[in-house]
From TrEMBL:
Subunit comment: Heterodimer; heterodimerizes with the protein disulfide isomerase (P4HB/PDI). Interacts with APOB. Interacts with PRAP1.
GO molecular function: cholesterol transfer activity; lipid binding; phosphatidylethanolamine transfer activity; triglyceride transfer activity
Cellular component aspect of the GO annotation: endoplasmic reticulum; Golgi apparatus
Signal peptide: 1-17
Protein name stated in the entry: Microsomal triglyceride transfer protein large subunit
Domain Vitellogenin: 28-661
Source organism of this protein record: Bos taurus (Bovine)
Catalysed reaction equations from the record: a cholesterol ester(in) = a cholesterol ester(out); a 1,2-diacyl-sn-glycero-3-phosphoethanolamine(in) = a 1,2-diacyl-sn-glycero-3-phosphoethanolamine(out); a 1,2-diacyl-sn-glycero-3-phosphocholine(in) = a 1,2-diacyl-sn-glycero-3-phosphocholine(out); a triacyl-sn-glycerol(in) = a triacyl-sn-glycerol(out)
Keyword Disulfide bond carried by entry: yes
Compartments (UniProt record): Endoplasmic reticulum; Golgi apparatus
SUPFAM superfamilies: Lipovitellin-phosvitin complex, beta-sheet shell regions, Lipovitellin-phosvitin complex, superhelical domain
Function: Catalyzes the transport of triglyceride, cholesteryl ester, and phospholipid between phospholipid surfaces. Required for the assembly and secretion of plasma lipoproteins that contain apolipoprotein B. May be involved in regulating cholesteryl ester biosynthesis in cells that produce lipoproteins.
Length: 894
């Protein structure tokens, strides 16, 4: 019996020496050379999946794989050698034909001799239980070439059993899931989980942001614990949320197929893998399997100064209404992001006053440490001569797509210094509030700079004594929307003077629903119903708007409805219009309002037949299945027929996420004495004032004053000037997304989306005692350009796709009131001009030697202008008419 047991053990030992034991990953047979074919190909298109419309290229080769060493302690510890041979390049689009950039070119000419030699030098892969322990290559090889070899080597990392784990390969440290079925294994890599250092940033707001998707699936066909075939597909897709025609997709595929096996060198004996590697070639060194960053050299690219000289004519003030100005602006920002401080600083020092404001816009929007240092060195905040440049710098900071703590700290430092203009000091504080909001939205609320800025805003508001300082800190809080500031806002809303009380109320109005607590609503109810003191109409109507917007209770709605009829004449009409607009536009409060209106005491002819000229109206600019643009206009008049407040708003929604695109508020007060009229209750002692306040892309700007005080009013009237006053003017970078991607094939990809606009908002208020007429005019002109770009680079061949859209548009609102008799005559107009809309697409393939293929398409259409309804009595939606033009296209060599 003992003899039989000994013989059995000897048999098992002999068998295991000739046949490999059980492994958890791929395993190579001893003394065999595996000969495979390998290809990696990449396609770029707009997500339509049509091969004829795609650009890209394919890199193919033969591959030899051999087992050099297996640990005597276990079959799952292996060292394999991988060698690429006979490298070839070709188009993925075979219909390119004579236009193929590879036609007539040898691979050695395209890749270059030294790169080809590096690509064909073998690499070593140390596998333990099927997972990569180390990756060995030669030092100082080009990073792009090493990445291609990393992409191939990563395919040999796998396991034969189902399960979820983390693996490190060329894509980084990623979560992967294996699904094993007999002779087939599927590996799904969660690319969003991959930890890898790559440059990139994005606009965090959903409306201005992008949606990206990434998938990776690799299928292994296994025979005898080794691959017969591998097919891997990685897809990267990008789409701009509010304009879905700006979209692109990368499809990257790898294919590995076993052709044959043949005899190879015998395994190298030894217990330590380090000794084996040294014996193979002492020049081998362990390097990371994770893909490394590389930059392709730009041949013949202009310097920053040369680039500026080529575009400066497009940035002249007279050209800012054209899309070409925005195109030049965006292109220059990209160049600025690669420039050093000294190089940047040379340009504004040598420029004239006409284009300096646009240059300041671009340098500030670049948002790099060098560009920030350069612009801060150039601007002198103690000077009164460069106020326009200082203001343009601050506006560019306010609309920064991805601000950092250093920018905030720079503004805090400036605020603590001295200023030549008090307006600039106010603007600095207001913009600090905007930056606090953006950093908090991007999980930066606990940064030291943000904490300091919060203390500066809240502490300043609490201690402020001058009216100007209180207004400044309230405007900063209106941008920052700090929950800690709500108690202060309630105090100023309920006990402050008229204009301050109104500003505090409108600041509260900007807070999200969760922050409007029962305590806040109790205070708003006291203000609206004047339980403790008399308030201005503007404050009361704002308090009512806060209540109705934030989940009003049955009794809150009922009390507001019951107040209609007891209010001043024009306020009656205004509140009635607000309620009717809620019902017509189906806002969240409409259900509660309908419930209350079932009571006859609230819903009767006497209450709903109040006359007046004040109004409120909300409508759609555009509406699709996933997005909507809305506009609203509410106008409140005094009892004497003089404009008290007009409020124009435009919102953009993506699903349920809103972006407050623009708000223009014109306010006037204390003008009744001019026409010998009696002021309304609570407004007897107001100073004569008219001004304009603008909010742009969720950022409150410093208000503009038309006149302040009776003497200023009379001087403006006697001068008979109706010239519009600029509210905001400049070039803005609104959409800014950049991703550098490591494809698992070893290729480098970049996805970028930029959106900018040139904007000019002006406002004017005219007042004529002779004709007893007042007129307000707000004009908004914009040029918009949005571009998206995708590139895939191997260092010796590059493919790219660029898509874009551009337009120039104008929107004008005019309100005219004739108060020679009562009821006074009111004319409201909001007109949109004809809008040219252009779309373009460029696809290209380019060799590092300079040879290339390019295809261009362009499509134009004209969107007809229209007049928007501003009353319930005229509620037909503005009809937009498209007049498409023929599509143009071209392709060829360059």
């Amino acid at each position: 019996m003992i003899l039989l047991a000994v013989l059995f053990l000897c048999f098992i030992s002999s068998y295991s020496a000739s046949v490999k034991g059980h492994t958890t990953g791929l395993s190579l047979n001893n003394d065999r050379l595996y000969k495979l074919t390998y290809s990696t190909e990449v396609f770029l298109d707009r997500g339509k999946g049509n091969l004829q419309d795609s650009v890209g290229y394919r890199i193919s080769s033969n591959v030899d794989v051999a087992l050099l060493w297996r640990s005597p302690d276990g079959d799952d510890n292996q060292l394999i050698q991988i060698t690429m041979k006979d490298v070839n390049l070709e188009n993925v689009n075979q219909q390119r034909g004579e236009k193929s950039i590879f036609k007539g070119k040898k691979s050695s000419q395209i890749i270059r001799k030294e790169n080809l030699e590096a690509m064909q030098r073998p690499v070593l892969l140390h596998l333990i239980h099927g997972k990569i322990k180390e990756f060995y290559s030669y030092q100082n090889e080009p990073a792009a070439i090493e990445n291609l070899k990393r992409g191939l080597a990563s395919l040999f990392q796998m396991q034969l059993s189902s399960g979820t784990t983390n693996e490190v390969d060329i894509s980084g440290d990623c979560k992967v899931t294996y699904q094993a079925h007999q002779d087939k294994v599927t590996k799904i890599k969660a690319l969003d989980s991959c930890k890898i250092e790559r440059a990139g940033f994005t606009t965090p707001h959903q409306v201005l942001g992008v949606t990206s998707k990434a998938t990776s699936v690799t299928t292994y066909k296994i025979e005898d614990s080794f691959v017969v075939a591998v097919l891997s597909e990685e897809i990267r897709a990008l789409r701009l949320n509010f304009l879905q025609s700006i979209a692109g997709k990368i499809v990257s595929r790898q294919k590995l197929e076993l052709k044959t096996t043949e005899a190879s060198v015998r395994l190298k004996p030894g217990k330590q893998v380090a000794a084996i590697i040294k014996a193979v070639d002492s020049k081998y060194t362990a390097i990371p399997i994770v893909g490394q960053v590389f930059q392709s050299k730009c041949k013949g690219c202009p310097s920053l100064s040369e680039h500026w000289q080529s575009i400066r004519k497009h940035l002249q003030p007279d050209n800012l209404s054209k899309a070409e100005a925005v195109r030049s602006f965006l292109a220059f920002i990209k160049h600025l992001r690669t420039a050093k401080k000294e190089e940047i600083l040379q340009i504004p020092k040598a420029e004239n006053k006409e284009v300096l404001p646009q240059l300041v816009d671009a340098v500030t929007s670049a948002q790099t440490p060098d560009s920030l240092d350069a612009i801060l060195d150039f601007l002198d905040f103690k000077s009164t001569e460069s106020v326009i440049l200082q203001e343009r710098f601050l506006y560019a900071c306010a609309f920064a797509s991805h601000p950092d703590e250093e920018l905030l700290r720079a503004l805090i430092s400036k605020f603590k210094g001295s200023f030549g203009s008090n307006d600039i000091r106010e603007s600095v504080m207001i913009i600090i509030g905007a930056l606090v909001r953006k950093l908090c939205q991007n999980q930066g609320c606990k940064l030291k700079g943000v904490i300091e800025a919060k203390k500066l805003i809240l502490g300043g508001l609490e201690k402020a004594e001058k009216k100007e300082d209180i207004v400044m800190y309230l405007l900063a809080l209106k941008n920052a929307r700090l929950p800690e500031g709500i108690p202060l806002l309630l105090k100023y809303t309920e006990t402050g003077e008229g204009p301050i009380s109104h500003l505090a109320a409108t600041t509260l109005q900007r807070y999200d629903v969760p922050f409007i607590t029962d305590e806040v609503k109790k205070t708003m109810n006291r203000i609206y119903h004047q339980n403790r003191k008399i308030h201005e109409k503007t404050v009361r109507t704002t308090a009512a708007a806060i209540i109705l917007k934030n989940n009003p209770s049955y009794m809150e709605v009922k009390n507001i409805l019951l107040s209609i009829g007891e209010l001043p004449k024009e306020m009656n009409k205004y509140m009635l219009s607000i309620v009717q607009d809620i019902l017509r536009f189906e806002t969240p409060a409409s259900k509660m309002v309908r419930q209350v209106l079932k009571e006859m005491v609230a819903h009767n002819y006497d209450r709903f037949s109040k006359s007046g000229s004040s109004s409120a109206y909300t409508g759609y600019v555009e509406r699709t299945s996933h997005s909507a643009s809305t506009y609203s206009l509410d106008i409140l008049y005094s009892g004497s027929g003089i404009l008290r407040r007009s409020n124009l708003n435009i919102f953009q929604y993506i699903e349920k996420t809103p972006l407050h695109v623009i708000q223009v508020v014109i306010e006037a007060q204390g003008l009744e004495a001019l026409i010998a009229a009696t002021p309304d209750e609570g407004e007897e002692n107001l100073d004569s004032y008219a001004g304009l306040s603008a909010l742009l892309f969720d950022v409150q700007l410093r208000p503009v004053t038309f006149f302040n005080g009776y003497s200023d009013l009379m001087s403006k009237m006697l001068s008979a000037s109706s010239d519009p006053m600029s509210v905001v003017k400049g070039l803005l970078l609104l959409i800014d997304h950049s991703q550098e991607l490591q494809l698992q094939s070893g290729l480098k990809a970049n996805m970028d989306v930029q959106g900018g606009l040139a904007i000019d908002i002006t406002g004017a208020m005219e007042f004529s005692l002779w004709y007893r007429e007042s007129k307000t005019r707000v004009k908004n002109r914009v040029s918009v350009l949005i571009t998206g770009g995708i590139t895939v680079d191997s260092s010796f061949v590059k493919a790219g796709l660029e898509i874009g859209a551009e337009t120039e548009a104008g929107l004008e609102f005019i309100s005219t009131v004739q108060f020679s008799q009562y009821p006074f005559l009111v004319c409201l107009q909001m007109d949109k001009e004809d809008v040219p809309y252009r779309q373009f697409e460029t696809k290209y393939e380019r060799l590092s030697t300079g040879r290339g293929y390019i295809s261009r398409k362009r499509k134009e259409s004209l969107i007809g202008g229209c007049e928007f309804p501003l009353h319930q009595e005229n509620s037909d939606m503005c009809k937009v008419v498209f007049a498409p033009q023929p599509e143009s296209s071209s392709s060829g060599w360059f």
